[in-house]
Specification:
The chain is an all-alpha fold. It contains 11 helices and no strands.
């Protein structure tokens, strides 16, 4: 196969690696990945092939990280749908679990942020009872049963999130969490409250 590549103008391993390294140093990750892939195919021994494949994976991670960085900027500017699309691209491109996991965590944060935004869009002229009923219509039966158990303090805290009072809501929700053993759905609301006060790290932890 190497003979025919040379005969018809094909490039050898060293030539492909040289071009790939030049692209890599210039930050052209997509072009570098293609060259490393060709280098891996033309490698004559396992060490050369492993080196090319390792660099190819590094290029994929660099491409994925670029998509992740773009998603963060889009999220900061409120373009949540576009940010989610970029995060999905990052997951598909990434060769390493660390980048894929970061993108997945960011998607979860986006979903929480979107939920808070939707709650904030509920008309202010509605009564608290009507607002609560509207929110409850989006919950599972088990979720609603759990929330009913927390009583009026919980309702007030959730409605406070709608009013943009994230800090007050978060304080009450965390107090309730301390009083109940193994709360399940409550942590969803805590995560949303943390997201509302821009505590993204706390939101992902919850």
């Amino acid at each position: 196969m190497g003979f025919f590549k040379k005969l018809f103008g094909g490039r050898d391993f060293n030539g492909e690696m040289k071009e790939a390294d030049a692209h890599f140093e210039g930050g052209a990750w997509a072009e570098a990945r293609l060259c490393y892939e060709r280098a891996a195919e033309s490698a004559r021994d396992g060490d050369d092939g492993s080196r090319a494949e390792s660099q190819m994976r590094e290029c994929l991670d660099r491409l994925a990280q670029a998509r992740l960085d773009e998603a963060k900027e889009l999220q900061a500017n409120g373009h949540l749908d576009l940010a989610e699309a970029e995060l999905m691209n990052a997951i598909e491109l990434a060769a390493s679990d660390s980048i894929r996991n970061e993108a997945r965590r960011r998607i979860e944060t986006l979903e929480q942020q979107d939920a808070v935004r939707k709650q904030a869009e509920i008309p202010d002229e509605m009564s608290d009872e009507d607002r609560w009923a509207l929110l409850a219509g989006n919950w599972e039966e088990d979720q609603l049963d759990e929330y009913d158990e927390y009583g009026e303090r919980f309702r007030t805290a959730v409605l406070a999130m709608h009013d943009g009072e994230g800090e007050a809501a978060l304080e009450t929700l965390e107090e309730i969490a301390d009083e109940y053993e193994d709360p399940a759905y409550l942590w969803l609301e805590i995560a949303r409250a943390r997201s509302l006060v821009e505590d993204l790290a706390g939101s992902e932890e919850a």
